[in-house]
Amino acid sequence: MPDTYDVIICGAGAGGGYLAGEIAANGTVLLLDAGPHIGAGEAMAPGIGSPSRRKFSTQINLGKYIPDSKTSGGQGNAFFAYPIYMDQSNPVFSAVQREPRVVGGGTFLNVGAWVRPRTVDFDGFAEETGVKGWSKQDFEPFFQQCEKTQFVHRTPRENWNPGSIAYEKAANRLGIKMYETSTNKFHCIFCGHRLDAGMPCKYDSLMGTAQTQIPKAIAAGATVLDNATVVKVEITNNKATGVTYVRNGVTTTATARKLVVVAAGAIGTPAILFSSGVWDKNKNVGQYLRAHPGIAMDALVPEPPAGGRWNTDRGYQWNCYHYPLDEKGQPVDVIIHASAGFPAATPWVAAQVGFFGQAYKDLMRRYPQRVGAFHFQLKPSIYGRVMGGVEKPIINYPVATVDGVLEPKILSDFTASIRTSARIFKEMGAIDMYPNPNLSTALFNQTITQLVTTAGALHPQGTCRAGASRTNSVVDTNCMSFDVDNLMCCDASVIPNHISSNPNSMIMAIGARAGAFVRSSILNTPSKNISTDEVAQ
Amino acid sequence: MMRDALAELDKVVSRRVFFDRIFKAGALVAAMDVIGPKAFGALTAADKATALAVYSACCKLVIPVDQDPGWATFEPGISDYGLNVFVGQVALGGSQQALDGFIGALVAFNQAPRTLGYNDLFLNMAPDAQLQYFTTSLTGGFEADGYGDVLVVAAFFCMFTAKATFFSNYPRHLAQDTEFQVLQPSSVKTGWDIMGWKGPVGPEEEKALRAKYYDAPVIPGIDFSNPWI
Ligand SMILES: Cc1cc2nc3c(=O)[nH]c(=O)nc-3n(C[C@H](O)[C@H](O)[C@H](O)COP(=O)(O)OP(=O)(O)OC[C@H]3O[C@@H](n4cnc5c(N)ncnc54)[C@H](O)[C@@H]3O)c2cc1C
Fold first, then answer.
1. According to the model, what pLDDT value does residue A96 have?
2. Strand pairing class (A369-377; B219-220)
3. What is the DSSP string of A183-210?
4. 3-state DSSP helix/strand/coil percent for chain A, to nearest 5?
5. CA nearest neighbour of A483 among A233, A256, A263
6. Whose CA is nearest to atom 50 of ligand 1?
7. Which helix (H) or strand (E) holds B219?
8. A393 lines ligand 1 (CB under 6 A)
9. How large is the average pLDDT for residues B137-158?
């Protein structure tokens, strides 16, 4: 195996994986990822699944704890969990969701909701960091490109979850406008498993980078090394010259002739830059962590539509979403993914309803499938921070104060959004819901606080953000480091300010845009790009 | 370099605030204060045994045995699994510090009733009194007594993780390394049996789903009726 490449990419997730597929035909590429490459070398079979992925991804919320395999009581090394492919990313307890460690990154096991950011987000980028070239128009072609490569589509209502249809109808009756949620799947067979996100898609239908761009990169000659943890970018005379990684206990340094890309996610990327000494040059590394606190809302609606069960099959997907509006008709900073008669077997959902004891057990017997809505608060008035290197990054995302008081904007936005969903659930005939806005204010606030602080904030972003100058950011408009030549970041970390959507679409668009830049300005090659369709289909 | 970074971090948020700002961790740090310097790795075996007993007692309140099995049916394994695997690895992200904090919170949960008018340890109280104390803790009823955070966090984590563990089909919750996960036959009803949940997709159902949906029509692209995007 050669040890010199044109480009070395550290991290094969949404950003790094997408970029690899865009440039591999134009130069030699090494793609490193700390996690396993599940089903590597097996043919992609959307709707069916490759043998390894079928085995790895069971139909219930189970998984392997990689790599520590810490369990107790002789339970073996497998247990159910929510994103569990985590090793060193979260040694200090924090209110930010852990990151996956697997080739494909978050795209390998996420829900598959494809939502574009709001227009205000693009305006907010320039306002926050002065970054140029990040307007909605600038990104439009890259979103369109990603939507093609990832098979982004909507599902006709005939295949919606009955809960989604009922929620949409009830919302419309109340004059609340709903929008259809797109998804990046191909030949989905509606097993219902995606709402238990945290496990890969057994049927290869979720079009993550491991299904699309990474095979495309491999077909074009890229080398992919899994279980390879990058510990450092080699920097000589202020220029990135390579990468040191540990694989199976062996430390290796590979040389990059033209570019090193750090794409290890919003926690992993600042950690690598920290270990590489870039934080010493630019204290914005790891600063400005943004995230989306989340709350799952759960309702008991005794009458399923059309006399059936809420989930005629397995429960499908998030089919529609909305933003609650304030009294001026402007969106509050919350996105509500309504839909799904949640399969109550998902431990997180089963655990939601706020009471316990005999009443709770009776409820689980009577209403095994319930209607739900997931609320993401999009723009908390706080920054968090990631400090420390690959060995031990420390994440601080202060959603609550010293006294346990939730950040006021998170509280007021969630109060508004939960009240809105509660009106819709009531219109659907709900007899109970959780959280319930009819609780006393103190208890309602406490419930929201508990849910936010235990569910954690999802979608970390912004820790090596793009901006106009090194005084307030880490990379420039093209995601190139201000401080080290030949060094790029390409993942959620570069997002200049928090976005109003689930972030996959934005990150892949960043990967596509970075690809165009690398092809034209780093590899100096005309766009030569093989079609994703040739590989994925 | 790490020291520099922490000094830098201290400028933005002091060490104490760093922990305290995070509500959960704040409560866990408070729990450590309650039980003193024993926390942070120096918990005794007796503390751990007490914590497990408290966890078990709370979870039995959350999922009682009725005509169907409850938490007690699956003891002693379920409490060990719930505390050390579910709480430790899943809910607290594998952080030993946080788990020690939670264990501290459980020890404090056992001791606190003495100073809150119950005159006894939680573990020695009658079931009705335990239920009342657990409920009052959960709803923040002891907030004025200086223990608020610790008791809420102990009760809330017990409630949340007991439900999550039980209704994830314990003790048949482990992945089988097979293409179709087959559930082991069991004479005792599990959480899933109680809910009537059908379990993993088997070969026949998979075939039927594929016949129905594999080539299902889709609407390409995204919904531009959303004026905000
Ligand atoms: C359970 C879950 C559900 C989600 N659902 C949705 C959804 O429905 N819609 C949506 O838009 N978004 C969703 N997201 C978010 C989305 O998947 C992430 O925002 C996105 O994947 C982040 O992309 P990234 O490139 O920044 O990082 P990642 O995709 O996390 O990729 C980072 C990669 O870097 C690797 N890495 C880290 N450190 C190192 C190192 N030191 N050396 C080598 N490799 C390293 C990791 O293994 C990983 O593969 C979800 C996320 C999760 C976890």
1. 58
2. unpaired
3. EEBSS----SGGGG-SS--TTS-B--TT
4. 30, 25, 45
5. A233
6. A110
7. strand B219-220
8. no
9. 75
Is the distance from CB of A242 to CB of A253 less than 8 angstroms?
yes
Q: Tell me which chain B residues have a C-beta less than 8 angstroms from the C-beta of A407.
A: none
**CATH label of the domain that carries residue A308:** 3.50.50.60
Ligand 1 neighbour A509 (Cβ under 6 A): no
Q: Measured between CB atoms, which of A86, A189, A351 is closest to B213? A: A189
- The 8-class DSSP code of residue A33 comes to -
What is the complex's ipTM, to 2 decimals? 0.89
- Cβ–Cβ under 8 Å, residues A514 and A486: no
| DSSP string of B133-175, one letter each residue | HHHHHHTTTTGGGT-HHHHHHHHHHHHHHHHHHHTTTTTS-SP
Only one residue has tokens 């945290």, namely A198
Residue A181 CB–ligand 1 contact under 6 Å: no
Torsion of CA B192, B195, B200, B201, to 10 degrees: 170
Stretch B52-80: mean pLDDT, rounded? 96
Which ligand 1 atom minimizes the distance to the CA of A101?
47
In contact, B153 and B28? CB cutoff 8 Å: yes
B223 CB neighbours in chain A (<8 A) are 154, 179-182
Chain B CB within 8 Å of residue A116 CB: yes
- The reply to whether residue A387 touches residue B6, judged by beta carbons under 8 angstroms, is yes
B184, pLDDT greater than 90: no
pLDDT score at A114: 97
Q: Which residue of A has its CA nearest to B201?
A: A59
Among all chains, which residue has been given the structure tokens 């997408």? A18
Q: What pLDDT, on the 0 to 100 scale, is given for residue A79?
A: 35
H/E element, B106: helix B96-111
Q: Would you call A24 helix, strand, or coil by DSSP?
A: helix
Give the residue numbers spanning the domain of A351: 4-536
A324 vs B contacts (CB less than 8 Å): none
CA–CA gap between residue B194 and residue A362 (Å, rounded): 10
What pLDDT shows up at residue A124? Answer: 96
Number of domains in chain A: 1
Q: Is A211 in the pocket of ligand 1 (CB under 6 A)?
A: no
With 0-12 CB in 10 A as exposed, 13-18 as middle and 19+ as buried, what is B182?
exposed
Q: Are strands A290-300 and A457-461 parallel, antiparallel or unpaired?
A: antiparallel
pLDDT < 50: residue spans in chain A: 59-94, 344-345, 528-537
Tell me how crowded residue B224 is: count the other CB atoms within 10 A of its CB.
Answer: 9
**How much of chain B is helix, strand and coil, in % rounded to 5?**
60, 0, 35
- For B81-109, the pLDDT digits (tens) are 889 877 876 666 666 666 777 888 898 89
User: What number of other Cβ atoms are within 10 A of residue B15's Cβ?
Assistant: 10
- Beta bridge partners of residue B30, listed in sequence order: none
Nearest to A15 by CA among A506, A501, A522, A528: A506
Chain-centre distance of CA B149, in angstroms? 16
Neighbour count for residue B16 (Cβ, 10 Å):
12
A115 secondary structure, DSSP code? -
| Distance from C-alpha of B210 to C-alpha of A70, rounded to nearest angstrom | 37
Ligand 1 near A263 CB (within 6 A): yes
